[in-house]
Amino acid sequence: MQPKDVQVFPIAAETTLLRSRTWDRLKFEAEYARQRGTTANTYLIRGDRVALLDPPGESFTQIFLSALKERQDPAEIDYIVLGHVNSNRGKTLQALLELAPQATLVCSKPGAIALRTILGDRLPETVAVRGDSCLDLGGHHRLEFVLTPTPRWPGELCTYDSKTHVLYTDKYFGAHVCGDQVFDEGAAIYRADRRYYFDCLMAPHAVQVAANLEKLSKKPAQLYATGHGPLVRYDLSELSSAYRDWTQQQQTRKEAVALLYASAYGNTGTMARAIARGLETAGADVKLVDCEQIDPDAIGAIVANTAGFVIGSPTLGGHLPTQIQTALGIVLSTADKVQLAGVFGSYGWSGEAVDLLAGKIRDAGFSFGFDPIRVKFKPTDEDIARCETVGAEFARALKRRQKQRPARLVSSDSQTARTEQAVGRIVGSMCAVAAKKDNRTELVLVSWVSQSTFDPPGLTVAVSKASGIEEFLHSGDHFALNILPESKRWQKRFAKERSIHGDTLADLEIGTTENGAPLLNGALAYLECRAENRMDCGDHWLIYAVAESGKVLDLQGVTAVHHRNSARA
Ligand SMILES: Cc1cc2nc3c(=O)[nH]c(=O)nc-3n(C[C@H](O)[C@H](O)[C@H](O)COP(=O)(O)O)c2cc1C
To answer: Are 24 and 1 in contact (CB under 8 A)?
Structure first.
């Protein structure tokens, strides 16, 4: 394999590209299956002042600095502009700043926060730019900044040079592909790589990407200077409109379901059509695919654009037919783990196919929207009705899932933020702890509630020390745990204030439990609790209480769950 190197190329007036190249796949691309190598593109703009845009990550630190020093004295670099900040760049930045201690770092505000974590004491003067900020390098090189945050890169920043009409697009419009070609002449050869890059890095954040594309389109760019892969000169308008189409497709894919099947004698096909009817009745958009009739390459594209997949197969000779084996391989390598799965099939006596499918899909980490369905030979009317029902259930489960998934998963580069994010993924049910003493009622929203003992039935609840209620929760005190249903009403009410007491209780209908504890009208269930013990834990008290009695008030209701982006949100 060709060794790593740095390709240097002038791309516009006083503007040089330094492309750190690897023909191998980099560590950070673990998610990226197309092994075509990559380039980390850095740009040097020499106006009256010198700006270096986007030094590469640590895989290239030494070769990049050697190549840079041959062309530019680092001691004369005025600005280092960072389209995004991550720890992978930390090592190169540290080495670069030793050679260029005079340089000012330029990045977005979230970028500056991440830099503080990465560089610590060694952080030099840093300018956090806003969306309307400009940096005049002299010689008519005026850098205009466009903030393009996505949950994955909250601090992303693109830069436009109004002299050269070059738009430095950081993560946008790139591709992980390595070669000698700097620009994209014969652009069609890159389209599959660019689409794959989009699917891996942009598609999950389609809403934010669409908004950012809109901002970028305001710059009259003649060249997209990408962060990775070939620069976009020849495919500029087509790639821009393809990005818009792809984001739009992504936003409408929400409840599409890929229903893949094969059927030698028509029985599994009958089941497939019944499941499809059920799905459609419940509002899903079904892509029904007979795997014997489709080019396997098309299966990946279909599955990548759906929120769930269902696979049906007959058992033939104790196995899956080849077309289903192929389809399964494609599905498992393409589908996102958040996609919901389903399995069905007709059989004659042993019926291994459904178990095989379910086992592989389960082992790959997917969860199911219905229990696998097996039908012996020809489906009866009852079987067909059952297939329709599970189709509809699957569509509803999909809707619920999408509602429950947090709108934004903000990824971060600092270890602390990553830990907080991970802690934030622990979900808890939304409850209101309510207590009354001396005619004073206090009510506080909590989501850190957990059953702790079976005998006696006991639970722990964490209550903020800042909330007024903690003084009502000493050993022997009684309180009610009101378990809230999924409802916008409660979300809105508690968005205003989490801790409610005094006059602000007036808009709530509060009854009493049998033991006289405050019961919130509209609660899904309640538990009458007696505090037994408490532990001093940082900014919270952890209360252990015994549930003395309780009742589910709405048997059909679903408990509200508190999804968070981070431990602090
Ligand atoms: C050649 C052949 C092999 C079969 N092997 C099995 C088998 O190993 N186990 C089983 O349960 N059924 C087996 N069957 C029965 C089929 O699974 C059954 O007929 C099923 O309804 C076919 O579904 P389809 O109409 O969707 O193709 C076999 C059928 C044929 C024709």
So the answer is: yes
